[in-house]
Amino acid sequence: MGGGVVAALVVLVLAGAGIAGLRRAWAIVDVEGRSMEPALHAGDRVPVRRVPLERVRTGDVVVVEQPGLGRPGRPGAAATTSRPAGRRWVIKRVAGVPGDPVPEAVAGVVGAVPGARSSSASSS
After folding, report:
1. Per-residue pLDDT of the chain in tens (124 residues, 90 and over written 9)
2. What is the pTM of this model?
3. Which residues form the Peptidase S26 domain (predicted)?
């Protein structure tokens, strides 16, 4: 092989590795439904950066997989992605993380006392 061919192969391999790395760190989801209006609307395409759970903070918008929720034609679907068939995603704003006081707006939904310290993450 000539030097030019080897260089071209190296560039292709590096480009492929870079694209694979980006796909692991980022995803694109399509918004369905009205649960996140006025911030997000049905049909919006949202870039999602994958981060560890420990980095999620109150007020962040998160996308989480919900097995069994959001089948086509059922309420609750908030997002879809072109990932493997059957995987559905829900977009929500984080109302609190462990240790935060439970917001009054979600206390009844999560069965907690408003203002009490939460022991697990909750979202609205």
Report:
1. 677 788 888 888 888 877 776 666 778 888 888 888 888 888 888 888 888 888 999 888 888 887 665 444 444 445 555 455 566 788 888 888 888 888 787 788 777 777 777 665 444 4
2. 0.56
3. 11-102
